[in-house]
Specification:
Helix content is about 45%, strand content about 15%. Strand 29, helix 28 and strand 30 form a beta-alpha-beta unit. Bound molecules: adenosine-5'-diphosphate and magnesium ion (2 copies).
């Protein structure tokens, strides 16, 4: 056999070889260090070991072939460039070993500084620093501490404890008061701790330190907290991390040295300016650890004007280059500035809009790119009322923002109590360690839910999101005692009835009532804030970006609205019609009595009378809605739920009958109702006598509704309006169902519009899988399809939403069977496929077929992108989601239809 030629895989990249677009391979940190190097910024030289090396290591438990040699070669060239050798006793090169994945995972993975120090090179380091023994021993003790903790799993507290001891012995609380001898003593202590926990001496061989540190970074990818974090943030589990080996620069060499972080704009508000913190005479991790108090970055101007000015120049340079907010780590070593990290910075929802708007003004990006940089989830966040926190309020705990909103109320610890107090008109916050399906009633009754355990996929989080209810989960500082009905947090005890405020966006928990203020963005959408005339950067930015989204989008956005008031509000939010007007509510309230008569009718005449009495009432409802939506399409769905839903519950009727009999009253009507309820009982109402089936079974029911709709439209048209009714038949599974209803409806339309011509469309919901699969036939009888993706999801999966969200969804999410609830975001593979088939086959049969969606998915960002891709004409969602859908429909165009600006 011929000798196999081995093409060596490249696992190590010098900073000069990489660039910012290689994040997959080099991780975010490595790619950006390379970018800064190539921009000519002062980055300490170094190299990056790729994510591929990490993946190979994690798969086999061994470094892949060639990696060790490549590291040796890059280390040698680093040593040449620096004129020093790693751990050289006379003049050592030291390096940091830093993790860095494609997506930043703050605090999740490991970094070790000062690698290369040992008992001998510590002396060389001191000489190098002009005889600064204190600095050298401080660096050494930091190495043992970080290495021990992150590479060898020595409990960090032990080192911290020894450090505290040393300070106590010295009578100080400040690290800087420890002198060289104290630190030398501390190094001895640290080594003992290391030996005790690992059973071996602290490794003195520099290359061994380096290799072990690299392994530890690889392995940190699979550390439990990293795994949890990824699951929560939906970061794929198989990316791996890169490892950066960077020559050390020292911020702890004296008062002319220091370290800091900087943002090119305020990541909270987006405002322009200099934001950051600086700490003199310190190494990087001290800033984050909060060991000593930092000073605002501006003060660096006094301390070291030259470095400060230089830093500002680089910040401007980086912003211009990345065309976005940058977040920067730097260190000053004896008056020389070094750049240690940059990335496009995280920001709040408000800052995202403000910054995108500013960057357009500055000519750095165009509006397409601005649209790309914000999203519907952020916009939705900005539409919730917010806590007004400019006062004295400090959070007492921070959990996970599991379902957004700002909720204030009295604390209760049981579901039963929540229901009781809510019935008395109180706002309550249900506090539990974690919730389970038994808490459902309490969750419904509460304004908000607060738990001490569980993450974004816990029962509480999933159910609260489904209900649109504010929820903070996993606030583990809370010590909850359910039997005693109290919890303690930050040294305070909160008992039942005390008021708390919870922020479901930030996860923060406050004691007492934090004032809530309405969202400015909602005020803008409602038309009460004029973006041209107010000085509000956020509102102006939202206005600008929304206008662009509207100009770009191909999908129309309608709303689901059942009343004139909802229709009016949605129209102000930009709705271009109603995609779903449910008629159920038109059978409720004081009309129940008529419905009962309809159900109990023994003769055709009795039934017709009941229907005739309902007709004018429904007609008035439609008139109101057509007026509010004048000139825009209004899709009215004929009655959908089973009729027994309009009758009192069985138990209640049984009791009524018994009580009335006892009193000797006439119970004929109650008995008849009871009999009807028994007769109409369904084991599985979702799959029972509802939708089009009702229309085919109860003579005159649909006819009455059709007549009410068309008469209302004619009335509006006669008074000069422009009504655009679309009649929608629910739950169709076969074309024959639709044909039957349609034939009857057309007769009525023909008759009623003789007075005044009005165009009326007739179409159907596509919500039964069979309808999707026979869409070609159904389109022959339908002028439009509206996908009812809630029912379609239920029927495609074979589960009912009400039963499953509390019962097992949390478990499915935990197991990863779903990445997200299929009721929250459309299941592209299954339900989405049905939508695609129906859209294609429907259009093939009838090219002018109008296609829309009226399930809740119509307001979900990901789903909107999917509906855009499938080529639907519109989405319809609740009034509050209309702006979100508009924004995402615009984003779908710039993202799917090609814009190279990502
Ligand atoms: P994280 O991702 O947690 O920020 P980093 O790898 O950025 O971890 O490093 C932790 C700290 O150590 C940061 O403050 C960083 O600036 C500092 N640091 C990292 N490498 C060096 C180095 N070569 N010289 C000086 N400081 C460093
Ligand atoms: Mg960092
Ligand atoms: Mg339905």
């Amino acid at each position: 056999m011929a000798a196999q030629e081995t093409v060596e895989h490249k696992y190590v990249y010098d900073f000069a070889e990489g660039n910012k677009d290689l994040k997959d391979l080099l991780g975010g940190k490595g790619a950006n260090l390379a970018e800064m190097t190539n921009l000519g910024l002062p980055v300490p030289p170094g190299f990056t070991i790729t994510t591929e090396a990490c993946k190979a290591y994690l798969a086999t438990g061994e470094e892949p072939d060639g990696l060790a040699d490549q590291i040796a070669a890059h280390l040698a060239s680093l040593e040449r460039a620096m004129g020093r050798r790693l751990g050289d006793p006379q003049d050592p090169l030291l390096v940091s070993v830093r993790s860095g994945a494609k997506f930043s995972m703050p605090g999740m993975m490991e970094t070790v500084l000062n690698v290369g120090l040992n008992d001998r090179s510590v002396v060389g380091l001191s000489a190098q620093a002009g005889g600064n023994d204190r600095f050298a021993w401080d660096s050494y003790r930091r190495l043992i501490q970080m290495f021990g903790k992150t590479v060898c799993e020595v409990p960090g507290e032990e080192f911290e404890h020894a450090l505290d001891e040393a300070k106590r012995a010295k009578g100080t609380t400040n690290d800087l008061d420890l002198d060289a001898d104290d630190l030398r003593g501390l190094v001895d202590e640290y080594k003992k701790i290391f030996l005790k926990h690992t059973g071996r001496e602290f490794p003195q061989e520099p290359r061994e330190q380096l290799d072990l540190a690299i392994r530890a970074v690889f392995e940190s990818w699979n550390a439990e907290r990293a795994v949890l974090y990824r699951r929560q943030e939906r970061i794929p589990a198989d990316l791996g991390t890169a490892v950066n080996v960077v020559s050390m620069v020292f911020g702890n060499l004296g008062p002319d040295s220091g370290t800091g972080v900087a943002f090119t704009r305020d990541p909270a508000s987006g405002a322009q300016g200099i934001y950051g913190d600086y700490l003199a005479n310190a190494q990087g991790e001290d800033v984050v650890a909060g060991i000593r108090n930092t000073v605002p970055l501006q003060e660096l101007e006094q301390l070291d004007k030259k470095s400060y000015d230089e830093l500002l120049r680089y910040m401007a340079r980086l912003e211009g280059h990345y065309k976005d907010l940058c977040d920067i780590e730097f260190t000053i070593e004896r008056g020389k500035l070094w750049m240690l990290q940059t990335r496009v910075g995280k920001r709040t929802a408000a800052a995202a809009f403000v910054i995108a708007g500013q960057l357009v003004d500055e000519g750095l990006i165009d509006l397409d790119e601005a649209l790309h940089r914000v999203n519907g989830a952020q916009l939705a966040q900005l539409m919730f009322p917010r806590f007004q926190l400019d006062h004295e309020f400090q959070p007492v705990a921070k959990g996970i923002g599991a379902s957004p909103g700002a909720a204030v109320g009295k604390v209760v610890f049981t579901s039963a109590r929540a229901v009781e107090l809510a019935a008395e008109g109180e706002d309550v916050i249900l506090v539990r360690r974690e919730t389970n399906p038994d808490d459902l009633n309490g969750m419904i009754a509460a304004k908000g839910i607060l738990t001490s355990r569980g993450g974004k996929t816990s029962h509480a989080a999933v159910v609260a999101r489904g209900m649109g209810k504010t929820c903070v989960s996993g606030a583990d500082e809370l010590d909850i005692d359910i039997p005693q009905r109290r919890f303690t947090v930050a040294g305070q005890t909160v008992t039942e009835g005390d008021i708390v405020s919870i922020d479901g966006t930030t996860g923060k928990v406050y004691l007492g009532e934090v004032p809530v203020m309405p969202s400015e963005v909602v005020q803008y959408f409602e038309g009460s804030l004029d973006p041209e005339h107010i000085d509000n950067a956020l509102v102006r930015a939202v206005h600008r970006i929304m206008s662009h989204a509207d100009a770009k989008r191909r999908l129309a956005v309608r709303t689901n609205a059942d009343t004139g008031a909802d229709a009016a509000r949605a129209r102000r939010f930009g709705a271009e019609g109603i995609g779903l007007c449910r008629t159920e509510h038109m059978f409720l309230g004081d009309r129940r009595e008529l419905v009962e008569r309809l159900i109990l009718a023994r003769t055709d005449d009795e039934r017709d009378e009941a229907l005739a009495a309902l007709l004018p009432l429904q007609r008035d409802d439609f008139v109101e809605i057509f007026r509010e939506m004048d000139g825009l399409p209004v899709t009215v769905r004929l009655i959908d739920p089973p009729l027994h839903e309009f009758l009192p519950p069985l138990e209640q009727l049984a009791v009524n009958v018994a009580v009335a009999q006892e009193r000797g009253e006439d119970v004929a009507k109650e008995e008849a109702l009871l009999a009807a309820v028994r007769r109409m009982h369904e084991e599985n109402p979702m799959l029972g006598l509802r939708g089009v089936r009702l229309g085919l079974v109860i003579p005159g029911l649909f006819a009455m509704q059709v007549r009410a709709i068309v008469e209302a439209a004619v009335a509006c048209a006669q008074s000069g309006g422009d009504p655009r009714p679309e009649i929608m038949v629910p739950l169709v599974g076969a074309v024959q169902e639709l044909e039957t209803v349609r034939a009857e409806a057309e007769k009525i339309i023909e008759e009623v519009t003789r007075e005044k011509a009005v165009d009326v469309l007739i179409g159907t919901m596509i919500e039964v899988p069979r309808a999707a699969l026979t869409a070609g036939q159904i389109a022959e009888a339908a002028q439009f399809f509206s996908f009812g993706t809630n029912d379609l999801t239920q029927m495609a999966w074979g589960f009912s939403r009400d039963d499953v969200e509390g019962a097992f969804f949390w478990r499915y999410l935990e197991l990863g069977i779903f990445g997200i609830s299929p009721f929250e975001s459309i299941d592209r593979d299954g339900v989405g496929r049905l939508v695609r088939i129906a859209a294609e086959e429907g259009r093939a049969a009838r090219p002018e077929l109008k296609l829309g969606v009226c399930g809740e998915h119509g307001g979900d960002p990901d789903s909107v992108h999917f509906f855009h891709e499938v080529g639907l004409d519109y989405v319809s969602c609740s009034p509050f989601r209309v702006p979100v859908a508009r924004l995402e429909a615009g984003r779908a165009v710039v993202e799917t239809d090609g814009s190279d600006s990502r």
